Amino acid sequence: MLELKRINRSLEDFFTKLSLREISQIVLITFIILLMISRFFVPVIVVGNSMRKTLEDGEILILYKKAYIRRAPKYKDIVIIKVSDSFNSETIVKRVIGAPGDHIVIKDSKVYINEQLLEEDYINNEEEVTGGYDIDITLKEDEIFVMGDNRNHSSDSRNPNVGVINYKRDVLGKIIYSLSDFEIM
Question: Angle at Cα 124 formed by Cα 109 and Cα 73, nearest 5°?
Answer without folding.
Answer: 80
